[in-house]
Amino acid sequence: MVLQLFHSRPFVLAGHRALIQDSSDQKPETSATSVGCMGIGPRNARTEGTVTSQLPEDLLHKRNSDILQVVRPLVKHWRKDGIKITVYLDDGLALAEEEQVCAQQAIRVKHDLILSGFVPNKDKCIWRPVQNLVWLGFIWDLKLCLFQLLPEKVANLVDLAGVILEQPHKVKIRLLAKFCGKIISFTPVIGNVTQIMTRCIFSVINSRDEWDQFVDLNFYSGSIREILFWRQNIVSLKPVAILREISDFKVFTDASDGAAAGFVANSDYIMHKQWLKHEAIKSSTWRELKAIELSIDSFKHLLSNSLVSFFTDNQNAVGIIQKGSKVPELQTLALSIFSICVSCNISLHPEWIPREDNEKADALSRIVDIDDWGISFEFFNFIDRLWGLHTVDRFANMNNAKLGRFNSLFWNPGTSAIDAFTCNWKGDNNWLVPPVNLVSKCINHLINCTAVGTLIVPKWPSSAFWPLLFKENLEYAWFVRDVLEFHEIDRILVAGNNKNSMFANGTFNGLLLAVRLDASQMN
């Protein structure tokens, strides 16, 4: 019902503010008792002809409690009659789907308030239907279905950040607390970034001995970065929708002991990464967060300017993405995820799902890349100086790529394309270290693309690819320009994460060939 209400762009009867009238001659027509306190809003009161700026805290609490007792029966009565209304102390907001209905309900609510002993504030009440107003300190834009910050609040925060950064060597803890308090109050409008990007400042505040002590922020670089972030980005942060919209994409991720994986639902986009040694021993929460970071980074060209639901079976990961973490390495991942989302204008909504609903991501995370081995940078640099400069690594992943441009089997951060055989290799100097079972396909694809490149293969005369490179008496094929033979295998081969590969476990005792190919001038 609420969803229908907001999607129809309702008209709103702005917050009514009222005085509570103390009159022995006029009985309120509710079950509550009228309160002997007059004033505008909860912070002013008139006592024996004298206006005070603020009630004592105990009286203020009693007054607010009394207001609720008076208002609750009214709210119940209105809602029972189908009026969509909410009240916060003496501030109220009512919604309707049609302008005429909203106007009629405004008359009804105003009439009931007066009969109940309230005196509506003529200067602050809005009894005409509107679709944009300020209520409870925020701009309610029902045309765009967004909360927005008041410009003066944004300006105050920027000014306060400037005051702090003007003398960072001498900042009062109380001033930092004021700065953080303003930011946290923005949570309904800009979301959980208010918690993620105040972690360092709060750690400084929590280490205080007293509120009026001074602190040198030059020793807390993280806090300065957060303050700079708010000063530079508060104006451009994307506001939160009043109601959550339908996601453009759904991404599922998981992390096993061996790898991270993620996929975009209803697409062919799959991310997979084998853990390195130091990653595999991390906590399960770290691995789950890393899987989410890798997925966002891998798919960001697809997810840009979109609303994305991320599903994981780790509840801790969801909480850390939303609020950050006290653990430095987990907070670093949370900040990285946030930074990617901000730079690509991605609205991220992490959600927990049971493990049985995440079976595909779990299965993908258990894939073992049997061809996860590579070539040393020392050897690559030698060949690159000889036959370079190479421009793209066609068979690689983010762990073993030798060039900034690389193709991989699955999406990885930095991947320019998946499945090298779907690309046109012409115009590039291709670095080719394919799995042995793909060498023949690699050679044929290079010929079909009339391309050039360097191929690294074992010297196996009995293999299927051998006749493609050499004719009788080891005569070169027409596209083979040169062949170099290497025997220092321990300096050339680099182990990946599949320790059972013969190219990684030291059992390969043969020779390696570097073959220079040029099919740019086909016979």
UniProtKB/TrEMBL annotation:
Positions of region (Disordered): 22-48
Superkingdom, taxonomy of origin: Eukaryota
Organism ancestry: Eukaryota, Metazoa, Spiralia, Lophotrochozoa, Mollusca
GO molecular function: nucleic acid binding
One GO-annotated biological process of the protein: DNA metabolic process
Signal peptide interval: none
InterPro entries, per the entry: DNA/RNA_pol_sf, Hepadnavirus_pol/RT, RNaseH_sf
Protein's name in the database: Reverse transcriptase domain-containing protein
